[in-house]
């Protein structure tokens, strides 16, 4: 691989990479993970607090961030702490929300408590305990059949993760016509025959998303920009349990902020750099979709780097490239060269994140993903973030940006 950047401006690239301060990134991450940020789900006060904090952070580096608001048709939100009690049968107790039962993203509305006996073949007034869960349309059709029989709702199995939590799901296709609650499989089996009373007030409300976009001008006004993006939204806290959303993706957000500080404190690169803290990734990569459209409409075609999950290093870093055809060879070359020069092994892996929106828009795009720990769980907290992973992410991104900027 030709070492273009190193031969052109080794000092600038090296000093930028070395200027990345992981302690600063960690401090930014800790602010984003605090309880008052409420897990940064769009439509919450905590989310808007995060937006304001990040805009102020970029401003403090001398950037002029633009807040680009967009409408979100609906977000799912629990209006109160969910409760579920089984009386009689083998259980005869209250279950613990998030550890033993959870809301289901396709549930119909449940404004008040719903009660009925749990049965495998449910009839009138009963909850249907589903042994297998049909996907897609078949799920809605099953709900119709059960509703016609007079069933009060459906209970589906959801396995706990390695730490004993039912992963928070905040995105789902259209709701069905019956209440649906997810229960841990062993408890679901034990609930059969008991009378189950559940109140899981999951509502769908419109919200506003806000992308935070700042541009560093380049030395060559004709040059295509380099885009660095990271989503700052999170899955949101439960009513009575905080979700810090540290790895996903306060880590990428904090790295982007520190990269912004490093880039603004040095002289301009040949190419402009667009820094985008995008919103609403967790509910369908809506912010990056909005941003990609805006770039296309403006006739801008950046090389896009997206960072999602930078809080844990598992010995190598996943890179997902797009579009497939034509393959973004210059982005591959820059990343590959950066990884080699910094001793950070890269591999072609799945990074299902905002990079796909930019790739779908036709931009040469790379999704960069370090490790995930406690995905969509309340345990995804700042205490489980490895500062050295933040450091590696920052260095990799800075080196890649310098290499891209030096390409012809
Ligand atoms: Zn994420």
Automatic annotation (TrEMBL):
Xref: SUPFAM superfamilies: Zn-dependent exopeptidases
GO biological process terms, semicolon-separated: proteolysis
Transmembrane segments: none
Gene3D superfamilies documented for this protein: Zn peptidases (3.40.630.10)
Domain Peptidase M28: from-to ranges: 211-400
Molecular-function GO term, any one: metalloexopeptidase activity
Full protein name: Peptidase M28
Organism: Streptomyces showdoensis
